Amino acid sequence: MDNHYDVIVIGGRCAGASTAMLLARAGLRVLVIEAARRGTDTLSTHALMRGGVLQLHRWGLLDDVVASGAPAIRATHFSYGDEIETVDVRPGDGISALRAPRRTVLDALLLDAAAAAGAEILRPARVTRLLSRDGRVGGVEGVTRGNRKAFRATATLVVGADGRDSLVARTVDAEFRRRGSAAGAIIYGYFPGLARDRYHWVYRPGITAGIVPTNDGLACVWVGIPAARFEASRPEDFRGLLAQAAPEVAESIAAAPVGRLRGYPGAPGYLRASGGPGWALVGDAAYYKDPITAHGITDALRDAELLARAILAAPHGGQAQLDAVRDYQNARDRLSEQFFDVTERIAGYRWDLCELREHLRVLSRAMRPEVDELLGLDDPNRESLLTG
Ligand SMILES: Cc1cc2nc3c(=O)[nH]c(=O)nc-3n(C[C@H](O)[C@H](O)[C@H](O)COP(=O)(O)OP(=O)(O)OC[C@H]3O[C@@H](n4cnc5c(N)ncnc54)[C@H](O)[C@@H]3O)c2cc1C
């Protein structure tokens, strides 16, 4: 049957494009359906942490990110009130620096890599309904944008990489395994003339800020506040909020035009059940936490590979695939829980600077196991968490 696939992936950004690329590289017949046009931005800043850069390196895509002009980030400055600490990026594991490409760059690059590996890409097109077959998810129905042509395709597995408002999660009623309560809001824009070689994170009680150097000589500058305070602010308050959080940064961009500012009101985190008969979830559809710890893309790239490996262990469906996808879910949970908890504490903004420093130490420790797990994937003698 022409329109039958091993895997249909709904959503073609960092989680979906990576999953599709890995499955297509392994020879599976894959269809990706993405609602947005190529190169469109999304509501997200884009700092990558070590695990995310490591994935791009392992997949042979880091050179393309470098070629895009995303600068080398060799250190992180942490401002606790007026006190600054610097942590250098440790060269090793094939990585000499971190990178923070714009989503217009990263998502396009990943989807191009999926297409180059043989995945079919249907875009811009929206899935409107899941099809069921023998009591399991068995395919999708939707419509292309522009010429509004209806389509239908079937698959052994449908992967929801369709973000926080996931159609797949809603349709299968994927249960929440964890639900958070903290939510931070973020307002951000892009500015020239800031340092290109470091992330800068600023913490003061009740307000945070960050600088993320990126493509085109610009840096993403963001201010974070508790969600409750966002309701009373407007994007135009950006400069005033930035002056409270990081007066020296506000000063250094005072003369720059503000351009487009984007505001995110915040939403509590969750970990969802991520596999069932004929379906799986990955990326924000499966696991979301407050952006204050800047880890959603890094986690999406990690979990894309854990899911792809699980699918490849049992590509023909049935109970074997269900078991493998549940192993992925359990591995994801083990790698994520400590990170989820500490993100909750930071995003709750109920800390003084002494407590915040302790939260950041926990955060730093929570990143190590995921990097070890990713490095272990290339070591044939090492048992993966997926089987542990
Ligand atoms: C304000 C903010 C700042 C952030 N900053 C950072 C950061 O600095 N670092 C970091 O690592 N993470 C950050 N994140 C988190 C990061 O943006 C997410 O974790 C990441 O986008 C998840 O990727 P994804 O592929 O799972 O989902 P998404 O990026 O949400 O992509 C889902 C895609 O699915 C498509 N789609 C949805 N429904 C359908 C449908 N029915 N049919 C077809 N297509 C569909 C959408 O068009 C979309 O393109 C931030 C998030 C926010 C909100």
TrEMBL record:
SUPFAM superfamilies: FAD/NAD(P)-binding domain
Positions of the FAD-binding domain: 5-341
InterPro entries per the UniProt record, alphabetical: FAD-bd, FAD/NAD-bd_sf, Geranylgeranyl_reductase
Pfam families (UniProt xref): FAD_binding_3
Any one GO molecular function term: FAD binding
UniProt xrefs under Gene3D superfamilies: FAD/NAD(P)-binding domain (3.50.50.60)
Protein name in UniProt: FAD-binding domain-containing protein
Organism per entry: Mycobacterium attenuatum
